[in-house]
Amino acid sequence: MINSLISELVGIKYPIFQGGMAWISDANLAAAVSEAGGLGIIAAGNAPGEHVRGQIRRARELTDKPFGVNVMLMSPYAGEVAEVVAEERVPVVTTGAGLPTAHMKRWLEAGVKVIPVVPSTGIARLVERAGAAAVIAEGSESGGHVGDLTTMALVPQVVDAVKIPVIAAGGIGDGRGVAAVLMLGAVGVQVGTRFLVARECGIHQNYKDKIIKARDIDTIVTGRRLGHPVRALKTPFTREFYSKEYDSSVSNEELEAFGVGSLRLAAHEGDEKRGSFLAGQVAGMIKREQSAREIVEEMMAETEEMLRGASKWVK
Ligand code: TUI
Questions:
Q1: What's the pLDDT score for residue 315?
Q2: Can you tell me the distance from the alpha carbon of 155 to that of 136, in angstroms, rounded to the nearest whole number?
Q3: What is the CA(309)–ligand 1 centre distance, in A?
Q4: pLDDT of res. 3
Q5: What is d(CA 212, CA 165) in angstroms, rounded to the nearest whole number?
Q6: CA of 72 to the centre of ligand 1 (A)
Q7: Is the pLDDT assigned to residue 188 strictly greater than 90?
């Protein structure tokens, strides 16, 4: 059994968070991961506050275990979602794609543990000062919105920069990855891409099939020109987006408009032409659909095996 202080901090059995994935991680997936002993996370994405409240209440019907809500800070509804999270006294809030400082006082007063995703040591220090309980150091191997640093370089530097616990994310798809980031000083992991193929994940079958078919080199980062780089599977759509980015005759407004609605089209419609199938670089090692419980238990059993075997390196 893997023992970690993050499990105690948030009241879970295994130190594994399910990443908040916009348009994807709903109450159903979050509750399944929490029931399996991890921390399930409902993604608010671009949804309004009352939609998120409905999901929080649904998760409470499905599990009595702790779960979290992820607030996507670029959303126009981030403020009202932040308020709902406080009113509902959600045990844990994670944040992404921006600085959560404007909402932290309210969350802390409501007793919500705040665990922001950070792409650098500077932002890790900033949120620690503002009262974060832990940070998630996410490397650019991850799917979705990415920072500049890889997990391998980012995690140990964040571990050295803050006193609060560090959870590693980005590029972790099995127990080898979990064991590796524990060696870097992390006390837990956040996993997104692997949970895309969880049986309880309600995305369109085309999305799951694409993840299972993906090779190591099949993701691409687009959106750098717009200031929000996003990693997704290579498709005709993401390749076209990429070429428009380097075409100076295309304005930023046109480029933004080209991407509008693409996350929903991938997740809900499985739209091969217009959808953006966000995925991390570990997509290439994901081979089959499994239940959330199988994913959590398999990853944790592999981690234990890796760590028990690690002494072979020491003479
Ligand atoms: O947030 C994510 N991943 C996401 S959010 C998302 S929805 C979206 N859709 C279209 C465009 C952009 C986003 C899809 N995937 N991961 C967590 C994460 N947060 N990665 C990087 C950051 C981050 C970046 C900058 C956190 C803080 C930060 O602060 C600096 C600043 O300037 O705001």
A1: 87
A2: 9
A3: 36
A4: 81
A5: 33
A6: 7
A7: yes
Structural contact between residues 26 and 51, judged by C-beta atoms closer than 8 angstroms? no
Provide the pLDDT for residue 2.
82
Ligand 1 center from residue 229 Cα (angstroms): 8
- Long-range contacts at 49-57 (CB < 8 A, ≥ 24 apart): 49/77, 49/80, 49/81, 49/83, 49/84, 50/84, 52/81, 52/84, 52/85, 53/84, 53/87, 53/88, 55/26, 55/27, 56/27, 56/84, 56/85, 56/88, 56/90, 57/88
CA–CA separation, 206 vs 268, rounded Å? 10
CB contact at 8 A, 14 and 191: no
Residue 2, both tokens: 């893997």
- Ligand 1 within 6 A of 260 CB? no
Q: Where in the chain is the domain with CATH 3.20.20.70?
A: 5-202+287-304
Cβ contacts of 84-91, under 8 Å, gap ≥ 24: 84/49, 84/50, 84/52, 84/53, 84/56, 85/52, 85/56, 85/110, 85/112, 86/110, 86/112, 87/53, 88/53, 88/56, 88/57, 90/56, 91/10, 91/11, 91/66, 91/67
Whether residue 126 has pLDDT greater than 90: yes
Reply yes or no on domain 5-202+287-304 having CATH 3.20.20.70: yes
Q: Are the CB atoms for 18 and 29 separated by under 8 Å?
A: yes
CA of 224 to the centre of ligand 1 (A): 12
Both tokens assigned to 65: 């275990």
pLDDT of residue 128: 98
Q: Is the CB of 62 under 6 A from ligand 1?
A: no
Residue 207 has pLDDT above 90, yes or no: yes
Nearest residue (by CA) to ligand 1, atom 22, is 97
Which atom of ligand 1 sits closest to the CA of residue 263? 9
- State both tokens at 102: 């404007």
Euclidean distance between CA atoms 129 and 123, whole angstroms? 10
Hey, what amino acid is at 288? R
